[in-house]
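ingest -> validate -> predict -> emit
validate: passed (alphabet ok, no gaps, 782 aa)
predict: started
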Amino acid sequence: MDESYPHLTLEREAPVTEKRAGRSPPPTAPDDPAAHARGLKARVEDALQQTDGDLGGFDDRRLFRFEVTKGFNPDEIGHLSSADIELVSQEEDTVVVAFVSKAALASFEARLASMAQGDAVSYKQVIYALRGIDGWSAEDRTGWALRQEGMPAAEPFLLDLELWPVDARPGERDALWDAFRAWLAENGIETLDGVRQPGLLLQRVRCTRAQAERLLRHRDVRTVDLPPRYGLDLRVLTTDIQNIPPVPSPPVDAPGIAVLDSGLATGHPLLAPAVGDAESFLPDHGPDDEHGHGTHVAGLALHGDVQEALDSGAFFPQLRLFSGRILDRNNENETGFVENQVAEAVRYFHGQYGCRVFNLSFGDRNKPYLGGHVRGLALTLDTLSRELGVLFVVSTGNVSGSQLTGLAWKDDYPGYLSSADWSLIDPATALNALTVGSIARFDRSHASGRYPRDPSEVPLARRDQPSPFTRHGPSVGGAVKPEVVAYGGNWALNTRGAANYLVTQGLGEVSTNRGFAGGNLLAADSGTSFAAPHVAHLAARILVERPDAPPDLLRALLLAHANVPPATTALIPQSDTCRSVAGYGVVDRHALFRSLENDVSLVAVKTIANKRHHFYELPVPEDFLSPGRRDREIAIALAYNPAVRSTRVAYKATRMDFKLVAGPDIEHVSKMFSRATEKDDYENIPELKTPDCNGQVRGKGTVQKATWRFRQFNGRSILKTKRLFVVVTRNDQPWGDVLSHTEEPYALVVCLRDRTNEGARIYTQLRSRLRARQAARAKVRV
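emit:
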């Protein structure tokens, strides 16, 4: 085995320069401002008639939806009236506004009337930005699943309601909640459960169709939708494994990994020695796994690649395993809001045992991401990850086998993987979580193995290609999702006799089986659920080497060591489409936990103020630049954990990104960034050429990565004639000041690799140069 070393520390250079954000261009003035104002005034009158039909409401405010020009700053809305007016939410290209009092509405109408008469008005650019005015209609309140499936036929039925998250004034949220609950009681609508937290108000009710129609007209209701279906269709192929050596207990100080799922078979011989605690957070249910999904996921979370462990003939857990049951025997959750149970479980395992890595392998097919806001469980995860300093690893979700029929699976693969019907589902959109998609390990089904002459069972994916059920990104704001992929199984199409049905036997991921008492220790199944714990395991394993690593560093290290398999890039050559399905690729464990001589990671964990640049000089050692045609690369990953706001399309309050630039010295580079006072100036700063993911694409996520690859260097190569600098920049949203810290933390990882030249002494040379630089700085300080 190659000798390994601790990752190196990358120190920041002295300059910390200011990043001054440019201003968005003002909206274009209409050709006839007076006519524009008259049109808006007529739309206000129509909207008033529409809102007259609204029901309920905790006060007398009127809610209007303003269609605005692209790039409009919604905080400017307050200038429309001299009285009380509040921005409630930004909904894609519209803004929902509350006129809290009659005086506020009258002030706005008077402003429009003055402009309609040709008079000069203040803040006319805000009125220019308005393109339309409407109320928030029943159609607007109809959620995606309810729109697709309609009202359930059997009455009464369950519905999930999201209320407007008003937080502008003290006590508003409580007043809205209490008034709405009272309205439900008055209307005979049964209340089952609710989520009540800043930025998110949810209510699950049981009602009739007539009551549902009234809910769709309630002023304080944002959306009405069908409850989630947190479940997977498991087709388990069990395998009887004999003579596995006894599994030892992990070290006493081993990090914990928590699986929130359908429970755990704690007596399983491959799991029992590592089980720290198993609890149920599902009312009236114990912690045992009645379904099997949780036990299957837990085996992968604890042991990582179970298939490799089987091949080696032994299991040596290095983690402690914790289980929180949040799903029932049907792998569903109908007792209440899973957001509440997840939050309770996370606080328990984090508080009692210090767990910092949580695996959630489930998704709500009734909540595909179609653009706009991040809500529900994803918002809960984003909030908890920042509050508690924990990492959530979630699956993209699966596509049901019923969404394509017959030979359409074979003929349309892989094109259908990027269709709208295959988009991420909640909570895979969470920006601060790590989202995992699936690729196939096996491409020969059980029947194909038994009958090698029979060609009837055709695999949809070949090895290292995207699994036929995996979902695609991006997430909110175009953020790359999933960030990584791992083995999750495959499907095959049985074409004999025109049957054309899907089979999974022999194509799934092997893991621990709930029914081990019957003699089958292991089972196999396919789904993105089983890809996510592969990555969660790696994240927790990093904590063995670096116990104090924050979640940002875990994400940055994982991405810095990820690459898209060649089989996937060959199948999907379009880079944007490939990235939306496979993210930044599969995590390579080769040098993930510790550096090697020819595969080195440099790590920086710092904090940065708003509108500032941080500079890191990257010393490039001699062996990296040595002559010869071979593959070398520089990979850079940045991760941070911003505050989020569900009422803004921008969603994340803090924005960070990085650039890799070349220059003669730090003074030249810092001046170049200081002069970039406008957004375009900053974006036009030349980065080192040909990264595999440009700054505008990668910068949309809270974890971002790019790789520069080199074959050979001549005397004029820029890496030989100039010095390299990684520049980290923070530039927050204007509304983010109240939510963000003065100094926001981040983690930066830079990797230098020369896998072809096993004799390269990159680590030794880098360590020597970093020590020399540190000694020189110490002399300057003295």
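Residues 399 and 469 are 5 Å apart (CA to CA).
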